[in-house]
Specification:
five-stranded parallel sheet, 44% helix, 16% strand, Rossmann fold, alpha/beta, seven-stranded mixed sheet, single chain
Length: 383
C-alpha cells in the first residue's frame, strides 16, 4: 500500500471519528482530544484503539452526552514519534481547546507529551502506554497521566510467573525492543524470572525498525532456552515468531501485551501456533462488563473486539465518567476527579475490575495468559 493510499485511509478514519460526534444538540460540545499512532510501526494497534475510543464516545452521545452536551473528539496522528506527539498535544490544547486527552500508545511519546499536557493542566489517560517510566514521572499523589491497566512492572512480573509456573520454562531468553517499553519489560524479566525459580540465559536487543532477526535468533538458539520472551511491538513480534520457526526452533514463544491481537496471528500465520501472550482482554472474558462491551461492539462493528479496542473503550469510558462527575468542565477538575474515582467498571481483567488509580495514576489487576491453538487465542483460567 503506497503512502497516498495510507494517508487517505487514515484521514477517512479520523473523519469518521469526528463527524458523528460533532453535531451539537443546541449546546456547545465537550471537547476531548485523542492522540494515537495511526501510521507507522504502531499503527495496527493505534487504529484498533481508535475504534474503541469512538465506540465509547458514540455510546455516551446516544445516551445524551455529558451534562446535556454532546462529546466532540479531536483526533491527532502522532505516528509513534515523540516530536510529532509534542506537536499534537500542543495543537489539541492550544488550537482545539480540549479539556482532556485520551492517549497515547507508544510509551516514549506518552512520556514526552504528557509533560506538555501537565503544564497546561490537561489530564491524559492512556489507551495502551505500558512503560512504568511514564507513570513514575508523575508526582506521587498528583498524577496528570493515567492508565486504566497495569504498567510494565506489574505486567512483567505476572508474565514471568506464568512463563515459569504455567509453561514450565526454567531457561528463558529475552529479545527486547530498544525502547523504554521493551527495556522496562526486559528489566522486569531479568528481575522476576529468578524469583520464580527460572534463569535468564540470554538478553538481545533490536531497534524498532528492524525486521531481520535471523542473527539474533541464531545467538539465542545456541543458549537452548525453554522459552523466549519477546518485549516489543506487534510487527516485529510477528517477524520474530516466523523467523524462529524458519530456523527450526521449537522453543516456547511468549509475547508482551502489545501482541495480544488477532492481527499478530494473521501476520505470523501458522508459525503463531503455540504462541503465548499475557492478555488483559479476550472476547471470551469472564468479566461481565467486558461481556456487555463485547456483545455491543460485535453487534455494531460486525467483528470481534480485541484488547486494543477494549483499551480504547476503557480509556474513553473512564474519561467521560470523570467529565460527568467533575464539578467544572476544565482540566484541573477532571484530574482531581480521576484521582478519586474507584468504581468505574473496566472491560479488562477478572470480573469486577474497576478503575481504582494508585498515587501514580495506574490501575492494578490480574492479567491472564492466552495461548494460540488452532489459529485462535485460548484464554487460560485466572488463578
Amino acid at each position: 500500500m503506497n503512502r497516498i493510499v495510507i494517508r487517505r485511509a487514515v484521514l477517512a478514519l479520523m473523519a469518521a471519528a469526528v463527524v458523528p460526534l460533532a453535531v451539537a444538540q443546541g449546546s456547545d460540545p465537550v471537547r476531548i482530544g485523542v492522540m494515537l499512532p495511526l501510521t507507522g510501526p504502531a499503527a495496527l494497534a493505534g487504529t484498533s484503539i481508535l475504534e474503541g475510543v469512538r465506540f465509547a464516545a458514540e455510546e455516551a452521545n446516544a445516551k445524551g452526552g455529558v451534562k446535556g452536551r454532546p462529546i466532540q473528539l479531536f483526533i491527532e496522528n502522532d505516528e509513534g514519534s515523540t516530536t510529532k506527539g509534542v506537536t499534537a498535544v500542543r495543537k489539541l490544547i492550544e488550537s482545539d481547546k480540549v479539556i482532556a486527552i485520551s492517549g497515547t500508545y507508544v510509551s516514549a511519546v506518552a512520556l514526552a507529551s504528557f509533560k506538555v499536557a501537565k503544564e497546561f493542566h490537561v489530564p491524559m489517560i492512556s489507551a495502551g502506554s505500558t512503560s512504568s517510566n511514564v507513570t513514575d514521572a508523575n508526582t506521587p499523589g498528583d498524577p496528570w497521566f493515567f492508565r486504566a491497566f497495569p504498567g510494565s512492572d506489574e505486567q512483567g512480573a505476572q508474565s514471568a510467573r506464568d512463563i515459569v509456573k504455567k509453561l514450565n520454562a526454567k531457561k528463558v531468553a529475552v529479545i527486547q525492543e530498544n525502547s523504554i517499553y521493551g527495556s522496562s519489560l526486559g528489566e522486569q524479566m531479568k528481575k522476576m524470572i529468578p524469583q520464580y525459580g527460572g534463569e535468564i540465559v540470554s538478553v538481545e536487543s533490536y531497534n524498532s525498525d528492524e525486521r531481520d532477526f535471523y542473527s539474533v535468533l541464531t545467538k539465542v538458539k545456541a543458549k537452548q532456552p525453554d522459552a523466549i520472551y519477546i518485549a516489543g511491538l506487534m510487527d516485529a513480534g510477528a517477524q520474530i515468531i516466523k523467523q524462529s520457526r524458519e530456523l527450526g526452533m521449537k522453543t516456547a514463544l511468549v509475547g508482551s501485551g502489545s501482541m495480544m491481537s488477532d492481527k499478530l496471528i494473521e501476520l505470523a500465520g501458522p508459525a503463531s501456533e503455540g504462541f503465548a501472550v499475557s492478555s488483559m482482554f479476550e472476547p471470551s472474558t469472564p468479566n461481565k462488563f467486558g461481556q456487555v462491551f463485547t456483545q455491543a461492539f460485535r453487534q455494531k462493528m460486525k467483528k470481534e473486539p480485541d484488547v486494543y479496542s477494549a483499551l480504547g473503550y476503557d480509556s474513553m469510558h473512564v474519561l467521560i465518567e470523570a467529565v460527568r462527575r467533575a464539578p467544572k468542565l476544565d482540566g484541573s477538575s477532571i484530574q482531581a476527579t480521576l484521582k478519586t474515582m474507584n468504581d468505574v467498571p473496566l472491560t479488562e481483567g477478572p470480573d469486577g475490575t474497576v478503575s481504582k488509580f494508585d498515587d501514580k495514576g495506574s490501575v492494578s489487576f490480574k492479567i491472564g495468559l492466552a495461548v494460540v491453538r488452532n489459529g485462535k487465542r485460548q484464554w487460560l483460567p485466572f488463578d
